[in-house]
Amino acid sequence: MKKLINDPATVVNEALLGIEAAHPELRVDHENKVVIRGDAPVSGKVGLVSGGGSGHEPLHGGFVGPGMLDAACAGEVFTSPVPDQMLAATKAVDGDAGVLHIVKNYTGDVMNFEMAAELAAAETGVDVVSVVTDDDVAVKDSLYTAGRRGVGVTVVLEKIAGAAAEQGRPLNDVAEMAKLVNANGRSMGMALTSCTVPAAGKPTFELGEDEMEIGIGIHGEPGRERVPLAPAKQVAEMLVEPIVSDLPFGRGDGVIAFVNGMGGTPLIELYLMYNEVARILDGNGIQVARSLVGPYITSLEMAGCSVTLVKVTDDLVELWDAPVKTPALRWGV
Amino acid sequence: MKKLINDPATVVNEALLGIEAAHPELRVDHENKVVIRGDAPVSGKVGLVSGGGSGHEPLHGGFVGPGMLDAACAGEVFTSPVPDQMLAATKAVDGDAGVLHIVKNYTGDVMNFEMAAELAAAETGVDVVSVVTDDDVAVKDSLYTAGRRGVGVTVVLEKIAGAAAEQGRPLNDVAEMAKLVNANGRSMGMALTSCTVPAAGKPTFELGEDEMEIGIGIHGEPGRERVPLAPAKQVAEMLVEPIVSDLPFGRGDGVIAFVNGMGGTPLIELYLMYNEVARILDGNGIQVARSLVGPYITSLEMAGCSVTLVKVTDDLVELWDAPVKTPALRWGV
Amino acid sequence: MTDAVTLAGLRAWVQGFAALVAEQKEKLTALDAAIGDADHGINMDRGMTAVLAALDSDDTLTSAAALFKKVGMTLVSSVGGASGPLYGTFFLRLGMACGDVDSLGPEDLAKALRAGLDGVVARGKAEAGDKTMYDALAPAIDALDDALDSGNGLREGMAAAVTAAESGRDATTPMLARKGRASYLGERSVGHQDPGATSSALLIRAAATALG
Amino acid sequence: MTDAVTLAGLRAWVQGFAALVAEQKEKLTALDAAIGDADHGINMDRGMTAVLAALDSDDTLTSAAALFKKVGMTLVSSVGGASGPLYGTFFLRLGMACGDVDSLGPEDLAKALRAGLDGVVARGKAEAGDKTMYDALAPAIDALDDALDSGNGLREGMAAAVTAAESGRDATTPMLARKGRASYLGERSVGHQDPGATSSALLIRAAATALG
Ligand SMILES: Nc1ncnc2c1ncn2[C@@H]1O[C@H](COP(=O)(O)OP(=O)(O)O)[C@@H](O)[C@H]1O
Ligand SMILES: Nc1ncnc2c1ncn2[C@@H]1O[C@H](COP(=O)(O)OP(=O)(O)O)[C@@H](O)[C@H]1O
Ligand SMILES: [Mg+2]
Ligand SMILES: [Mg+2]
Ligand SMILES: [Mg+2]
Ligand SMILES: [Mg+2]
């Protein structure tokens, strides 16, 4: 295992120290491993809390700040945080306008956030509403599974819900906006290499020099199928086609197009992929309203990428364009 | 070789198509492989032109926009662009206030920019001043070499010179600011893995599972020495100590501290490294005025990092804080 | 002869489980690498290590209810993932069902274990055959009930429970996962033993050793 | 017998060099991987391929000056890196020195080659022993001069040049690089043959074949 770390057991805590040192505008509750917006709680504003296993940076801690999240809970690598963390985060951002929990659809995340909501209800009067993202079309027949995984859409949802909250909209509106984004978003990912959980010490799976995994998640899970390496053009088709046909996205639809890096793939390849994705969308008469290219929801050092499309209306685009000031997404301010 | 590409011969051209598609606010001259600020030339403003081999993304194309570069020339992977490109870029950004060439100190880059300046002088009346970055302390006895390599300082220099130009300062002022940044900046890098030039098809060098290279550049060149893998804490010392003792940086100095990812190292490790770097600086009484953490000047998919320190005065910090709106660096607007 | 289970025995069960988890940590993580995200052993070991520390540092644990509440809360607060809430809820419900006693008979123990299992189901909605810890726990508790109903003592009952848990665990290998991360793999989950069922079999084995 | 070099011969030299570069592309890149950035073969092949295309598509190349200017400009515009300006300048100066002729004698050719070499030095400031292309080119041109001075013909002169270029190339192996990327390696550059010296030896070999 080749990593810039000291001890697998303390990776998350040490990274949080680095985030705190690099971003004076944020607060970090080290005991609960929560990254908090510096001026939280913002009274009268709905508080946005997300979180999940670590190893997906910048998600979620890199999205804390004005216009996006109020707090992010960092679990162990690829392991959902515990209810105590979400409870602490919920209390820290409670501005008397309720708190929204943004949860990626993984059994562990869902159950821990559930318990946190139960505890919050019991311990504090704060209203908590939860939205779950489940945009990964790689998960088939989701009726007979834990459901689809929450992946790329989470980034877009946190941005848009964050903007809605910043505008002072009430909890239910913000939650509705969030659900709308998830309902209109789909993603699909692939990997050229596996990744190594620091505490495990070896790659989660092995891939041959001439193989790739299609339909992977963001936890180094093996994907739906293993296929021979293919040119970027074909990889783009393998990712975009299932997304487009699933929602479906049709001629004239406007979308936010997001090409995400898995952590080990350099930007030059992501831009090359974006070119292929844009061509395919163009061929389908789908209009790109906004785009995002880069490593925003990663899987440690895994090489690969994912594509996320979110069908948007003008008001969603407006919320996307609204000012945001976080370590990883920043514009308009 | 596992890459998201179609053909090694067209990687750069296709990535430029992706940049153009993802960033409507930029213009791309595909014939000359130049990324240009959409509103260039900005009349009365000094034009900033940089460029170099590709494979370092977001450098340089990701730094084109208001407050930073006016144009960036993309060479083949790890190969300096040719004079024709720099000439085209110089003409495209000439706003009758002169043009600054920002050149990383590599024989090829220096000679090609030299020829471009000669051609510009001959073909157009535009004043061209060149600044060369040479901040890599890994290169010892630089009197008997091609001199130190230009690495991390280039990013800081392009931001600060870009801000100075945006303020309407004259060519010589902007060039002076740029030289000041280079004179006060030092960097050192390391690699956990090699990287593969697409056209070459195999890693530039081989590294054992328990080895790392200290003192690497950004072209997959082997470094000064190969040492056993060490914890992040010691890696940080191996990078920071030579930097601090070289300028030297002393108690009370204020710095911009930049921990850069080489392309294949995930953000969680970079933040962990930043924590170690911040501690060491603190121990030396060096104050961090501003910080930057992320992959900004990369070496394809190489795993590793570099540390850059730039000694700053208040006016340099002001220029660093000034609004910038580029694909890779954006704040204040 | 009395089959009554003492508080000391219950503690020994928890400590024995912690020891088995520590010993099988790599194995559990490797199983999770095949159909999950390579952390089950790491998660359970982190949790049970925290539990041991909690038991040592707390001398108010003078009843089964208090003991298992502590175990459950500690797991919930330290494990995360799917197994944290699931094992945590198991012990929380187990404790509530045991009540404020410092010893209990086999039938009461069996009832309490059933309550714990119901907690797992309430939290995770797993059904038989979903390829989860349920597939090891449920047969084990059924076997214990049957043994006690047919007049056997706790030792025999626990022995039967271990056999049932381990064949339940082995039976997860051919199953197609319908819960948890493994379910994302679809057909590719077939042919791999479920990590949670494997740790649950250790839980039953530890119980047999300490209480049987 | 006349040793005069014709325009056709000069074209054949350039084409022969292109062929050798294409053939040795991997080799040149591998040498650059050891002490540079693994692109010298790729760079030179890209450049000489562009040169071949340029020569085909241009029928105004009726003098040595025009021919080599075209070659030089094409290399400058297509290679990049260190070798682009260096080889480009070599051919540009070579052409200027040849002048508007369609054939030239051995002494004139030798003078022109020296002018090209001076261009390389003017651009790159290399000195003997810096472990660069200079260390193959300079000895070759010296050998040619010596041969012609001592009354030998072009064939003998070129043969001597090839021998000198190749031993100059081999002599770069033990050298400590003082120019170009290889210089960053310090001591670690010792023991590796210089890629540019290797391509320059091909340039001289191609000349011998076409003109000798
Ligand atoms: N809904 C569920 N009901 C019961 N058990 C479950 C459920 N989901 C997952 N599990 C169990 O949890 C185990 C995985 O635990 P662990 O790896 O620690 O959590 P995670 O999947 O969050 O990484 C699986 O092997 C399975 O036995
Ligand atoms: N200053 C110089 N003078 C002469 N030759 C040089 C100089 N610098 C580099 N070279 C030659 O250029 C070769 C490298 O060329 P190439 O790999 O194509 O360019 P780059 O180093 O920019 O990748 C070296 O092997 C060396 O022979
Ligand atoms: Mg997990
Ligand atoms: Mg090069
Ligand atoms: Mg797991
Ligand atoms: Mg090279």
Strand content of chain A: 15-25%
Helix content percent band of chain C: 55-70%
Q: Which blocks of ≥5 consecutive residues of chain A have pLDDT under 50?
A: none
Distance between the termini of chain A: 40 Å
Report the count of strand segments of chain A: 14
- State which percent range the strand residues of chain C make up: under 5%
> Which structural class do you get from the secondary structure elements of chain C?
mainly alpha
User: Which molecules are bound besides the chains?
Assistant: adenosine-5'-diphosphate, magnesium ion
Biggest β-sheet strands, sense, barrel of chain C: 2 strands, antiparallel
Mean pLDDT of chain C: 96
Largest interface: A-B, 59 and 59 residues
Proportion of helical residues of chain A: 25-40%
- What class would the helix/strand composition of chain A place it in? alpha/beta
User: How large, in whole angstroms, is the Cα Rg of chain C?
Assistant: 16 Å
* Mean pLDDT across all amino acids of chain A: 96
Low-pLDDT ranges of chain C: none
Sheet having the most strands of chain A: 6 strands, mixed
Which quaternary structure do these chains form? heterotetramer
Q: How many runs of DSSP E, i.e. beta strands of chain C?
A: 2
- Spatial strand arrangement across the major sheet of chain A: 1-2-4-3-5-6
Shape of chain A: globular
Question: How is this fold's topology laid out?
Answer:
The complex is a heterotetramer, with 2 copies of chain A (333 residues) and 2 copies of chain C (212 residues).
Chain A: H1 11-22, E1 26-29, E2 34-37, E3 47-54, E4 71-77, H2 83-93, E5 99-104, H3 107-123, E6 128-133, H4 153-166, H5 171-183, E7 185-191, E8 211-214, E9 225-228, H6 232-246, E10 254-261, H7 267-283, E11 287-294, E12 304-311, H8 314-321, E13 324-325, E14 330-331
Parallel strand pairs in A: 3-4, 3-5, 5-6, 10-11
Antiparallel strand pairs in A: 1-2, 2-4, 7-8, 7-12, 8-9, 10-12, 13-14
Chain C: E1 5-6, H1 7-35, H2 40-57, H3 64-78, H4 83-98, E2 103-104, H5 106-124, H6 134-149, H7 154-171, H8 195-211
Antiparallel strand pairs in C: 1-2
The complex binds adenosine-5'-diphosphate (ADP) (2 copies) and magnesium ion (4 copies).
